[in-house]
Amino acid sequence: MIGSSVVVRTRSWIVLCLGGFLGCSAVGSPALAADCPGHPDALGTSRTLVVDPREHPRIGTMQYRETLPLKDHEVVLTFDDGPLPKYSYQVLKILADECIKATFFIVGQQAKANPEGVRKLVAAGHTVGTHSMSHPLTFDRMPNEKFEPEINGGIEWTSAAMTDPAQLAPFFRIPGLMRAEGVENYLISRGIQIWSADFPADDWRHVSSDRVYQLAIQRLEAKGKGILLLHDIQARTVAALPKIIRDLKARGYRIVHVVPATADRPATPTNPVEWLLHPPTETVPIARWPAVPHFVFAESRTLPAPSLADLNARTEHQPLLPRRTRGQMDIASTLPVPGRALFAIPEGSVEVLLSTTLSRRAATRLAMAAETPHAARGKVAKGKTAKPQARHTAHAAPAAPNHAAQIKSAPPRPTRVASLKKRA
Ligand SMILES: [Zn+2]
Protein backbone atom coordinates (compact mmCIF):
# COMPACT_ATOMS: atom_id res chain seq x y z
CA MET A 1 0.00 0.00 0.00
CA ILE A 2 2.69 2.41 1.00
CA GLY A 3 4.86 2.47 -2.14
CA SER A 4 2.08 3.82 -4.27
CA SER A 5 0.17 5.66 -1.55
CA VAL A 6 2.61 8.52 -1.83
CA VAL A 7 1.77 8.81 -5.51
CA VAL A 8 -1.94 8.72 -4.77
CA ARG A 9 -1.53 11.20 -1.98
CA THR A 10 0.46 13.42 -4.30
CA ARG A 11 -2.35 13.22 -6.81
CA SER A 12 -4.91 14.12 -4.16
CA TRP A 13 -2.78 17.00 -3.01
CA ILE A 14 -2.49 18.31 -6.55
CA VAL A 15 -6.30 18.44 -6.64
CA LEU A 16 -6.34 20.26 -3.32
CA CYS A 17 -3.56 22.57 -4.39
CA LEU A 18 -5.60 23.96 -7.23
CA GLY A 19 -7.30 26.25 -4.74
CA GLY A 20 -4.11 27.71 -3.35
CA PHE A 21 -0.60 27.39 -4.61
CA LEU A 22 1.15 27.91 -1.27
CA GLY A 23 -0.04 24.63 0.20
CA CYS A 24 1.57 22.53 -2.55
CA SER A 25 4.84 22.37 -0.65
CA ALA A 26 3.21 19.93 1.74
CA VAL A 27 2.84 17.21 -0.90
CA GLY A 28 3.44 13.74 0.52
CA SER A 29 3.69 14.81 4.16
CA PRO A 30 0.98 14.73 6.84
CA ALA A 31 -1.32 17.70 6.58
CA LEU A 32 -1.19 20.29 9.31
CA ALA A 33 -3.83 22.87 10.01
CA ALA A 34 -1.51 25.60 8.79
CA ASP A 35 -0.95 23.98 5.41
CA CYS A 36 -4.46 22.90 4.43
CA PRO A 37 -4.96 24.82 1.20
CA GLY A 38 -7.96 27.08 1.18
CA HIS A 39 -8.81 26.10 4.75
CA PRO A 40 -6.56 28.01 7.11
CA ASP A 41 -8.67 27.02 10.09
CA ALA A 42 -8.61 23.30 9.27
CA LEU A 43 -7.90 20.74 11.97
CA GLY A 44 -5.46 18.86 9.73
CA THR A 45 -3.64 15.59 10.39
CA SER A 46 -0.86 15.98 12.90
CA ARG A 47 1.12 12.82 12.17
CA THR A 48 1.18 9.41 10.49
CA LEU A 49 1.52 6.35 12.70
CA VAL A 50 2.91 3.21 11.05
CA VAL A 51 1.84 0.02 12.80
CA ASP A 52 2.91 -3.61 12.43
CA PRO A 53 -0.20 -5.84 12.69
CA ARG A 54 1.94 -8.83 13.72
CA GLU A 55 3.35 -7.02 16.73
CA HIS A 56 0.01 -5.77 18.02
CA PRO A 57 -2.75 -7.92 16.46
CA ARG A 58 -5.71 -6.72 18.56
CA ILE A 59 -6.38 -3.08 19.29
CA GLY A 60 -9.18 -1.02 20.78
CA THR A 61 -9.97 -0.81 24.49
CA MET A 62 -13.67 -1.46 23.94
CA GLN A 63 -12.62 -5.09 23.75
CA TYR A 64 -8.88 -5.48 24.06
CA ARG A 65 -6.08 -4.64 26.42
CA GLU A 66 -4.11 -2.76 23.81
CA THR A 67 -4.97 0.17 21.63
CA LEU A 68 -3.05 2.42 19.26
CA PRO A 69 -0.01 4.10 20.82
CA LEU A 70 -1.55 7.55 20.82
CA LYS A 71 -0.42 10.49 22.88
CA ASP A 72 -2.82 12.46 25.01
CA HIS A 73 -5.37 14.37 22.87
CA GLU A 74 -4.66 12.32 19.77
CA VAL A 75 -7.61 10.86 17.87
CA VAL A 76 -7.98 8.33 15.05
CA LEU A 77 -11.19 8.58 13.03
CA THR A 78 -12.62 5.35 11.62
CA PHE A 79 -15.67 4.84 9.37
CA ASP A 80 -17.43 1.51 8.82
CA ASP A 81 -19.88 -0.08 6.39
CA GLY A 82 -19.27 1.99 3.23
CA PRO A 83 -18.79 3.05 0.67
CA LEU A 84 -22.28 4.33 0.04
CA PRO A 85 -21.96 7.23 -2.42
CA LYS A 86 -24.82 9.29 -1.00
CA TYR A 87 -23.15 9.69 2.39
CA SER A 88 -19.60 8.44 1.95
CA TYR A 89 -18.82 11.16 -0.58
CA GLN A 90 -20.08 13.84 1.80
CA VAL A 91 -17.86 12.40 4.51
CA LEU A 92 -14.95 12.49 2.06
CA LYS A 93 -15.63 16.17 1.32
CA ILE A 94 -15.82 17.10 5.02
CA LEU A 95 -12.54 15.30 5.73
CA ALA A 96 -10.88 16.87 2.69
CA ASP A 97 -11.94 20.35 3.82
CA GLU A 98 -10.23 19.70 7.14
CA CYS A 99 -7.23 17.88 5.62
CA ILE A 100 -8.01 14.89 7.83
CA LYS A 101 -6.91 11.34 7.00
CA ALA A 102 -9.05 8.53 8.37
CA THR A 103 -9.41 4.74 8.19
CA PHE A 104 -12.34 3.15 6.37
CA PHE A 105 -13.55 -0.42 6.91
CA ILE A 106 -15.24 -1.55 3.71
CA VAL A 107 -18.04 -4.08 3.36
CA GLY A 108 -17.38 -6.39 0.37
CA GLN A 109 -20.88 -6.02 -1.01
CA GLN A 110 -20.58 -2.22 -0.93
CA ALA A 111 -17.24 -2.42 -2.76
CA LYS A 112 -18.82 -4.74 -5.31
CA ALA A 113 -21.70 -2.30 -5.85
CA ASN A 114 -19.58 0.90 -5.68
CA PRO A 115 -15.99 0.15 -6.67
CA GLU A 116 -15.56 3.81 -7.60
CA GLY A 117 -16.26 4.72 -3.99
CA VAL A 118 -13.32 2.55 -2.84
CA ARG A 119 -11.05 4.21 -5.40
CA LYS A 120 -12.08 7.66 -4.19
CA LEU A 121 -11.13 6.76 -0.62
CA VAL A 122 -7.72 5.52 -1.72
CA ALA A 123 -7.23 8.54 -3.98
CA ALA A 124 -7.96 10.85 -1.06
CA GLY A 125 -5.13 9.20 0.88
CA HIS A 126 -7.24 7.43 3.48
CA THR A 127 -6.39 4.01 4.85
CA VAL A 128 -8.71 1.27 3.64
CA GLY A 129 -9.31 -1.95 5.58
CA THR A 130 -12.18 -4.43 5.39
CA HIS A 131 -15.30 -5.31 7.35
CA SER A 132 -16.45 -8.71 5.92
CA MET A 133 -18.42 -9.49 2.77
CA SER A 134 -22.03 -9.11 3.88
CA HIS A 135 -21.77 -7.71 7.41
CA PRO A 136 -23.34 -10.60 9.34
CA LEU A 137 -23.72 -9.94 13.07
CA THR A 138 -22.98 -13.56 13.91
CA PHE A 139 -19.19 -13.71 13.84
CA ASP A 140 -19.19 -14.73 17.49
CA ARG A 141 -20.97 -18.02 16.69
CA MET A 142 -19.90 -18.83 13.16
CA PRO A 143 -17.88 -21.95 12.29
CA ASN A 144 -14.69 -21.52 10.28
CA GLU A 145 -16.37 -22.53 7.03
CA LYS A 146 -18.77 -19.60 7.45
CA PHE A 147 -16.54 -16.77 8.71
CA GLU A 148 -13.55 -17.47 6.46
CA PRO A 149 -15.50 -16.79 3.21
CA GLU A 150 -16.97 -13.68 4.89
CA ILE A 151 -13.53 -12.31 5.69
CA ASN A 152 -12.00 -13.33 2.37
CA GLY A 153 -14.94 -12.11 0.30
CA GLY A 154 -14.63 -8.65 1.79
CA ILE A 155 -10.90 -8.55 1.12
CA GLU A 156 -11.35 -9.89 -2.41
CA TRP A 157 -13.99 -7.39 -3.50
CA THR A 158 -12.37 -4.41 -1.85
CA SER A 159 -8.95 -5.08 -3.33
CA ALA A 160 -10.59 -5.81 -6.71
CA ALA A 161 -12.08 -2.31 -6.62
CA MET A 162 -8.65 -0.75 -6.15
CA THR A 163 -6.35 0.26 -8.95
CA ASP A 164 -3.51 -1.24 -6.93
CA PRO A 165 -4.71 -4.04 -4.64
CA ALA A 166 -1.50 -3.69 -2.60
CA GLN A 167 -3.03 -0.54 -1.16
CA LEU A 168 -5.47 -2.54 0.92
CA ALA A 169 -4.40 -2.36 4.55
CA PRO A 170 -4.34 -5.63 6.53
CA PHE A 171 -6.83 -4.13 8.99
CA PHE A 172 -10.15 -5.82 9.80
CA ARG A 173 -13.05 -4.77 11.97
CA ILE A 174 -15.46 -7.55 12.95
CA PRO A 175 -19.06 -6.54 12.12
CA GLY A 176 -20.89 -5.44 15.25
CA LEU A 177 -17.60 -6.08 17.12
CA MET A 178 -18.87 -9.66 17.58
CA ARG A 179 -15.46 -11.02 18.39
CA ALA A 180 -14.63 -14.71 18.78
CA GLU A 181 -11.39 -16.48 19.50
CA GLY A 182 -11.51 -18.57 16.32
CA VAL A 183 -12.12 -15.51 14.14
CA GLU A 184 -9.28 -13.59 15.79
CA ASN A 185 -6.87 -16.51 15.50
CA TYR A 186 -7.66 -16.87 11.82
CA LEU A 187 -7.09 -13.16 11.17
CA ILE A 188 -3.87 -13.13 13.19
CA SER A 189 -2.57 -16.19 11.32
CA ARG A 190 -2.98 -14.15 8.15
CA GLY A 191 -1.16 -11.13 9.58
CA ILE A 192 -4.33 -9.05 9.75
CA GLN A 193 -4.78 -6.58 12.59
CA ILE A 194 -8.13 -6.69 14.39
CA TRP A 195 -9.49 -3.23 15.04
CA SER A 196 -12.03 -2.73 17.75
CA ALA A 197 -12.39 0.89 18.94
CA ASP A 198 -11.92 2.98 22.05
CA PHE A 199 -15.37 4.57 21.88
CA PRO A 200 -18.36 4.70 19.53
CA ALA A 201 -20.77 7.59 19.03
CA ASP A 202 -23.85 5.37 18.58
CA ASP A 203 -24.41 6.78 15.07
CA TRP A 204 -25.99 3.51 13.89
CA ARG A 205 -28.80 3.94 16.40
CA HIS A 206 -31.91 6.06 15.87
CA VAL A 207 -30.52 9.12 17.59
CA SER A 208 -30.16 12.73 16.46
CA SER A 209 -26.98 14.04 14.89
CA ASP A 210 -26.62 16.28 17.95
CA ARG A 211 -26.61 13.19 20.11
CA VAL A 212 -23.91 11.61 17.91
CA TYR A 213 -21.81 14.75 18.32
CA GLN A 214 -22.34 14.83 22.11
CA LEU A 215 -21.46 11.15 22.56
CA ALA A 216 -18.36 11.43 20.39
CA ILE A 217 -17.01 14.35 22.43
CA GLN A 218 -18.12 13.09 25.85
CA ARG A 219 -16.56 9.67 25.35
CA LEU A 220 -13.39 11.09 23.89
CA GLU A 221 -13.08 13.53 26.79
CA ALA A 222 -13.53 10.63 29.21
CA LYS A 223 -10.57 8.74 27.72
CA GLY A 224 -8.49 11.69 26.57
CA LYS A 225 -7.49 10.00 23.30
CA GLY A 226 -8.34 7.01 21.15
CA ILE A 227 -10.04 5.44 18.16
CA LEU A 228 -13.48 6.86 17.38
CA LEU A 229 -15.91 4.49 15.64
CA LEU A 230 -18.26 6.13 13.13
CA HIS A 231 -20.24 5.02 10.04
CA ASP A 232 -20.02 6.76 6.68
CA ILE A 233 -23.39 5.41 5.55
CA GLN A 234 -25.51 7.44 7.98
CA ALA A 235 -27.10 10.86 7.40
CA ARG A 236 -26.71 11.69 11.11
CA THR A 237 -22.98 11.03 10.90
CA VAL A 238 -22.63 13.37 7.94
CA ALA A 239 -24.55 16.02 9.88
CA ALA A 240 -22.56 15.52 13.09
CA LEU A 241 -19.07 15.25 11.60
CA PRO A 242 -18.34 18.97 10.92
CA LYS A 243 -19.41 19.82 14.48
CA ILE A 244 -17.29 17.00 15.93
CA ILE A 245 -14.24 18.19 14.00
CA ARG A 246 -14.75 21.84 14.99
CA ASP A 247 -15.02 20.82 18.62
CA LEU A 248 -11.94 18.60 18.40
CA LYS A 249 -10.03 21.61 17.15
CA ALA A 250 -11.41 23.89 19.87
CA ARG A 251 -10.49 21.37 22.57
CA GLY A 252 -6.95 20.92 21.31
CA TYR A 253 -7.26 17.42 19.85
CA ARG A 254 -5.02 16.25 17.00
CA ILE A 255 -5.78 13.76 14.25
CA VAL A 256 -3.46 10.80 13.68
CA HIS A 257 -3.43 8.86 10.41
CA VAL A 258 -2.65 5.14 10.78
CA VAL A 259 -1.04 3.08 8.01
CA PRO A 260 0.34 -0.47 8.03
CA ALA A 261 4.05 -1.18 8.03
CA THR A 262 5.56 -2.56 4.83
CA ALA A 263 9.00 -3.56 3.65
CA ASP A 264 9.49 0.04 2.51
CA ARG A 265 8.11 1.66 5.62
CA PRO A 266 8.97 0.26 9.06
CA ALA A 267 6.64 0.62 12.02
CA THR A 268 6.88 3.77 14.09
CA PRO A 269 9.14 2.92 17.04
CA THR A 270 7.06 2.56 20.19
CA ASN A 271 7.38 1.32 23.72
CA PRO A 272 5.07 -1.62 24.70
CA VAL A 273 3.40 0.45 27.44
CA GLU A 274 2.37 3.06 24.88
CA TRP A 275 -0.07 0.48 23.50
CA LEU A 276 -2.05 0.72 26.72
CA LEU A 277 -4.65 3.47 26.94
CA HIS A 278 -3.31 4.68 30.28
CA PRO A 279 0.22 3.38 30.79
CA PRO A 280 1.27 3.03 34.42
CA THR A 281 3.06 6.12 35.64
CA GLU A 282 5.63 6.64 38.36
CA THR A 283 2.90 7.56 40.82
CA VAL A 284 1.09 4.21 40.51
CA PRO A 285 3.36 2.20 42.84
CA ILE A 286 2.83 4.87 45.51
CA ALA A 287 -0.87 4.09 45.47
CA ARG A 288 -0.17 0.44 46.31
CA TRP A 289 0.33 -1.00 49.78
CA PRO A 290 3.51 0.28 51.36
CA ALA A 291 6.28 -2.23 51.83
CA VAL A 292 6.71 -3.57 55.36
CA PRO A 293 9.33 -1.34 56.98
CA HIS A 294 12.53 -3.01 58.06
CA PHE A 295 12.50 -2.51 61.80
CA VAL A 296 15.78 -2.99 63.60
CA PHE A 297 14.57 -4.50 66.84
CA ALA A 298 18.08 -4.61 68.31
CA GLU A 299 18.00 -0.83 68.50
CA SER A 300 15.04 -0.85 70.88
CA ARG A 301 17.65 -1.21 73.64
CA THR A 302 17.86 2.55 73.89
CA LEU A 303 14.14 3.26 73.84
CA PRO A 304 12.40 3.62 77.23
CA ALA A 305 8.98 1.99 77.60
CA PRO A 306 6.25 4.67 77.38
CA SER A 307 4.09 5.26 80.41
CA LEU A 308 0.41 6.22 80.24
CA ALA A 309 1.45 9.72 81.25
CA ASP A 310 3.50 9.93 78.06
CA LEU A 311 0.35 9.26 76.07
CA ASN A 312 -1.36 12.13 77.85
CA ALA A 313 -4.00 9.72 79.11
CA ARG A 314 -5.69 9.75 82.51
CA THR A 315 -5.88 6.18 83.77
CA GLU A 316 -9.29 6.63 85.46
CA HIS A 317 -10.82 7.47 82.04
CA GLN A 318 -9.28 4.47 80.34
CA PRO A 319 -11.28 1.50 81.66
CA LEU A 320 -10.61 -0.63 78.58
CA LEU A 321 -6.89 -0.32 78.78
CA PRO A 322 -5.16 -3.06 80.76
CA ARG A 323 -4.49 -1.47 84.11
CA ARG A 324 -1.01 -1.53 85.45
CA THR A 325 0.12 -0.29 88.75
CA ARG A 326 2.56 2.56 88.97
CA GLY A 327 5.09 0.09 90.34
CA GLN A 328 4.81 -2.21 87.32
CA MET A 329 5.15 0.69 84.92
CA ASP A 330 8.25 1.89 86.69
CA ILE A 331 9.77 -1.55 86.52
CA ALA A 332 8.97 -1.86 82.81
CA SER A 333 10.56 1.44 82.06
CA THR A 334 13.70 0.79 84.03
CA LEU A 335 14.36 -2.89 83.36
CA PRO A 336 17.77 -3.35 81.79
CA VAL A 337 18.19 -5.54 78.73
CA PRO A 338 19.58 -8.86 79.97
CA GLY A 339 23.15 -9.41 79.02
CA ARG A 340 24.31 -12.30 76.86
CA ALA A 341 26.25 -13.82 79.73
CA LEU A 342 23.01 -14.44 81.60
CA PHE A 343 21.99 -17.11 79.06
CA ALA A 344 25.35 -18.79 78.87
CA ILE A 345 25.45 -22.34 80.22
CA PRO A 346 28.68 -23.10 81.99
CA GLU A 347 30.46 -26.32 81.19
CA GLY A 348 29.29 -29.35 83.18
CA SER A 349 26.12 -27.61 84.20
CA VAL A 350 23.82 -30.11 82.44
CA GLU A 351 23.78 -32.30 85.56
CA VAL A 352 23.02 -29.27 87.68
CA LEU A 353 20.14 -28.29 85.42
CA LEU A 354 18.82 -31.86 85.39
CA SER A 355 18.93 -32.19 89.13
CA THR A 356 17.24 -28.80 89.49
CA THR A 357 14.47 -29.88 87.13
CA LEU A 358 13.98 -33.19 88.92
CA SER A 359 13.87 -31.57 92.34
CA ARG A 360 11.34 -29.01 91.04
CA ARG A 361 9.09 -31.76 89.74
CA ALA A 362 9.31 -33.61 93.04
CA ALA A 363 8.47 -30.41 94.96
CA THR A 364 5.50 -29.76 92.68
CA ARG A 365 4.15 -33.27 93.21
CA LEU A 366 4.40 -32.88 96.99
CA ALA A 367 2.70 -29.51 96.92
CA MET A 368 -0.17 -30.89 94.80
CA ALA A 369 -0.67 -33.82 97.14
CA ALA A 370 -0.82 -31.45 100.11
CA GLU A 371 -3.26 -29.05 98.41
CA THR A 372 -5.71 -31.49 96.79
CA PRO A 373 -8.17 -32.10 99.73
CA HIS A 374 -8.15 -28.40 100.58
CA ALA A 375 -8.83 -27.37 96.95
CA ALA A 376 -11.76 -29.80 96.63
CA ARG A 377 -13.36 -28.51 99.83
CA GLY A 378 -12.90 -24.94 98.69
CA LYS A 379 -14.69 -25.58 95.39
CA VAL A 380 -17.86 -26.92 96.99
CA ALA A 381 -17.95 -24.53 99.91
CA LYS A 382 -17.48 -21.37 97.90
CA GLY A 383 -20.92 -20.08 96.90
CA LYS A 384 -19.43 -17.84 94.29
CA THR A 385 -18.16 -20.73 92.18
CA ALA A 386 -21.29 -22.84 92.62
CA LYS A 387 -23.75 -20.15 91.60
CA PRO A 388 -23.01 -19.84 87.90
CA GLN A 389 -22.97 -23.63 87.52
CA ALA A 390 -26.40 -23.91 89.14
CA ARG A 391 -27.79 -21.21 86.90
CA HIS A 392 -26.42 -23.05 83.92
CA THR A 393 -27.84 -26.48 84.83
CA ALA A 394 -31.28 -25.05 85.58
CA HIS A 395 -31.66 -24.37 81.88
CA ALA A 396 -30.03 -27.60 80.77
CA ALA A 397 -32.06 -30.81 80.53
CA PRO A 398 -30.49 -33.78 82.40
CA ALA A 399 -27.85 -32.50 84.75
CA ALA A 400 -24.71 -34.49 85.41
CA PRO A 401 -24.72 -36.26 88.85
CA ASN A 402 -21.87 -34.17 90.35
CA HIS A 403 -23.58 -30.99 89.16
CA ALA A 404 -26.78 -32.07 90.87
CA ALA A 405 -24.86 -32.53 94.10
CA GLN A 406 -23.49 -29.05 93.80
CA ILE A 407 -27.00 -27.61 93.28
CA LYS A 408 -28.14 -29.35 96.50
CA SER A 409 -25.33 -27.84 98.48
CA ALA A 410 -25.94 -24.37 97.02
CA PRO A 411 -27.90 -21.97 99.27
CA PRO A 412 -31.56 -21.26 98.32
CA ARG A 413 -32.03 -18.14 96.23
CA PRO A 414 -35.37 -16.40 96.94
CA THR A 415 -34.74 -13.78 94.26
CA ARG A 416 -34.91 -16.46 91.60
CA VAL A 417 -38.40 -17.60 92.78
CA ALA A 418 -39.60 -14.01 92.65
CA SER A 419 -38.41 -13.62 89.12
CA LEU A 420 -40.26 -16.81 88.08
CA LYS A 421 -43.49 -15.51 89.61
CA LYS A 422 -43.12 -12.29 87.69
CA ARG A 423 -42.81 -14.15 84.42
CA ALA A 424 -45.98 -16.22 85.07
ZN1 LIG B 1 -20.33 -2.36 10.56
TrEMBL record:
Q: Where is the composition biased (Basic residues)?
A: 376-394
User: Can you quote a single GO CC term?
Assistant: membrane
A molecular-function term among this protein's GO annotations: hydrolase activity, acting on carbon-nitrogen (but not peptide) bonds
UniProt keyword annotations, A-Z: Hydrolase, Metal-binding, Signal
Q: Which InterPro entries match?
A: Glyco_hydro/deAcase_b/a-brl, NODB_dom, Polysacc_deacetylase_ArnD
Q: Which GO terms describe its biological process?
A: carbohydrate metabolic process
Q: Which Pfam families match?
A: Polysacc_deac_1
The entry sums up its family as follows: Belongs to the polysaccharide deacetylase family.
Please list the residue ranges that the record marks as compositionally biased, kind Low complexity.
395-405
Its recorded name reads: Chitooligosaccharide deacetylase
